[in-house]
């Protein structure tokens, strides 16, 4: 976590753009949270324009009506303001790097409790508790 | 019912391993969650080479995301997550750091 899936039209982004967006997403997420950079997962999925994708952190599907869509999944527990800033930062960076108007990019972030995910063999910490988690030996999981 | 979405990086999970993975994950569900958890459904999404990143670097990490019936406590959930992760690593050769496993309640809306 977080897991950001970018739904994009086929052949719309070069490798260099995808890599730059992945780095930018990591920068945005980690500048607004205390998550370590290795937590940030970004995947690009080329779509046929169906306009919906299964929700990775909730139930049902997320529907969208823009050519580009960011389906984010984060740990729960952050303020509404932080969540809003993360999403707007992602959309801004995506638009800038992809070279598309911001109104062609939309997104939604859903959340699930940290304790419902295991990473590197350990239950994830709550947002803000990452430093202690990183210092704990793996056996503490 | 238990559903899984496997997000795997291209080349990290051989096609011939998939049936065994599904069978063993079904066995984990039966053993840890019990028969009352119901049937298991699996979908695979392969992330093409050059399309998956972790911390801004090319990724070899798989994400195993599941939904399970409501009502399991933290100990049972942790045991389930650990068993799924161990099964995944044993069958794919991934390291512990290369798999992220989650299990959210069926009713959780996100």
In short:
The complex is a heterodimer of chains A (141) and B (110). With 141 residues, chain A is α/β, with parallel strands linked by helices.
**Mean pLDDT over all positions of chain B:** 96
Radius of gyration of chain B: 14 Å
Largest sheet data of chain B: 4 strands, mixed
CATH-defined fold name of chain A = Macrophage Migration Inhibitory Factor
The structure class of chain A reads alpha/beta
What share of residues are in beta strands of chain B?
25-35%
Domain count of chain B: the total is 1
CATH names the topology of chain B as Macrophage Migration Inhibitory Factor
Report helical residue fraction of chain A.
25-40%
How many DSSP H or I helices of chain A?
A: 3
What is the tally of beta strands of chain A? 8
- Name the overall outline of chain A: globular
CATH class term of chain B: Alpha Beta
Give, in order, the helices and strands of chain B.
EHEEEEHE
User: Uncertain regions of chain A: pLDDT < 50 for 5+ in a row?
Assistant: none
Q: What is the rounded distance between the termini of chain B?
A: 18 Å
Element-level helix/strand string of chain A: EHEEEEHEEEH
Order of strands, widest sheet of chain A: 2-1-5-6
Measure the end-to-end span of chain A. 17 Å
What does this structure look like?
The complex is a heterodimer of chains A (141) and B (110). Chain A is α/β, with parallel strands linked by helices and 141 residues long. Chain A has a single domain (3-140), classed as 2-Layer Sandwich (Macrophage Migration Inhibitory Factor), CATH 3.30.429.10. Chain A has helices at 15-31, 80-98, 130-135; strands at residues 3-9, 41-47, 52-54, 61-63, 68-75, 105-112, 117-119, 122-123. In chain A, the strands form 3 sheets. Chain A has a 4-stranded mixed beta sheet, covered by helices on one side. A two-stranded antiparallel ribbon of chain A has the order 3-4. A two-stranded antiparallel ribbon of chain A has the order 7-8. In chain A, helix 2 links the parallel strand 5 (68-75) and strand 6. The model of chain A has no long low-confidence stretch (mean pLDDT 94). Chain B has 110 residues and is of the alpha/beta class. Chain B has one domain: Macrophage Migration Inhibitory Factor, CATH 3.30.429.10. Chain B contains 2 helices and 6 strands. In chain B, helix 1 runs antiparallel to helix 2. The longest helix of chain B is centred in the C-terminal third of the chain and has 19 residues, at 74-92. Classes of the chains: A alpha/beta (141), B alpha/beta (110). The A-B interface holds A 1, 3, 15, 18-19, 22-23, 25-27, 36-45, 54-60, 73, 110-113, 115-121, 123, 138 and B 5, 7, 45, 47, 50-56, 59, 61, 63, 65, 67, 74, 77-78, 81-82, 85, 96-97, 100-110.
